[in-house]
Amino acid sequence: MMRATTLVGMAAMTLAVCAASETGAPTLAASPAERLRAAQSAEERLTLRATLNTATFSRQSSVSSQVVVCRKPGCCRWEYQSPALKGLMMIEKGDTVIRLDPAQTTASTACSNREHGRFDLLLKNYTVTLERTEPIIGRAADVLVIKHREAGRPAKKVWVDRATNLILRTEYYDSDSKLATLTFYTDIEWNPPLADSLFEIPDGWKKVAVEDDPGKHWDRESLSKEVAFNVCEPAYLPAGFAVDGFHLYHCRCGVASAHLRYVDGLNSVSVFERFTQCPGRGRGRGFGWGKGRGGGRNCQLLANQPGRMLVRQVGDLSFILIGDLPEAELSKIADSVK
Amino acid sequence: MKPCKDIQTQLADFAVGALAERERAEVESHLQECPTCQRELRALRQAGAVLDALEPEEAPADLWQSIRREIETPKQEPAHAPWWEVLFPARWPRLAYAGLAATAILVAALLMTVSRLSPAEDDETQDFLQRHGMLAWNDPLSDKAALGVMLGRSEVGREIQ
Q1: Is A311–B119 a contact, with Cβ atoms under 8 angstroms apart?
Q2: How far apart, in Å, are the Cα atoms of A324 and each of A147, A180, A300?
């Protein structure tokens, strides 16, 4: 009798949890880390039409835009309202990301695969703390702070809706601890009807691919054959970084590059390797740094996004490192590429 | 409470949500009690809305035709000296010509150096930055609205259809 009662109780609890997840209502997790994990995947289950503001601040230029977002499970569409972005739209459909450019009527497609292990890496490298609970656009939200265990790394602050787990506001602080990007919802309409055509490439638009083998991962040997030189890996990586993947990438002049990507859960470092000589150079489109200077190097802050780029030339090869790290760390990685 | 003049220097950042948390709280608490600053904030927001709504002005339809007419219409020029005499009057000392040439070389060298130190202007740099950003799309907690701005700011890719 006792056993039957227990079974009935467990079944009722399971049904309650299922019902909660179908309505989008979260089961509030005990720890901030688990709360963040729930927030990470919450938006994929929601249907909404909303307006948000996004701004990116850098030393050279800042850009902001109001964005109309349409989201339903498996799809999302962002329509940028700023005149500077000329009607740009982004669509995410599964692992495919489409950039719609109304001025050119082109649709550029790329693939970005989801590696769920990256979130565990984030929790290993970063601490997640609940700072406070406060209202935002009339909804109660938990403010979670995500900080690296070491100094000189980016940090994030997110406002997680207590009712749906949707992230209502995001602040990204770069490795210099400066606010670099800011995105926040200003209004949300829940469960509106959304036509499938919103998430499709309009008829008659020119389709453009931005990569040769979408989502393909290479090993070092096969990638070396493809780019016709021995791909080198950095012997030094800052604490917490791990290999995410090796990729093949052709820049617009047609030169094949090896793209080595390293991640720590929140931050990433790209190492591009390629022959320095580029057919585009004659047209004034090639890299100028280090030309004629063996071992030339140039490191500077990026103009339009957080982070730094470092370019180094060794013999016939150029190494281009991009990441949001202090200059000393990026240089140390570059020096260790062998 | 902070004086209005201090608060008003922060209102623009407050309006776009760019203030740090402590400063934001200060401004919010000031706004609750100060109708002057509330009005100032409303005005700022209205101005922002107007600017956002602005669209680039179209050039007049006949602009190109009028420029072309100007170019193609033969001018009634008075008889003049050959161009080399205009550019290099005989009365100028040779030293001045040498100075002009040296300045031109210096300016050209400076421009070449600056262009080499400005990767943000380089198309290929944009390609690598876009590629870096693209692969961050599905990283945990990626701010896709902000990434879209970065990815949308230049044309990349090749036609496949």
Answers
A1: yes
A2: 14, 11, 11
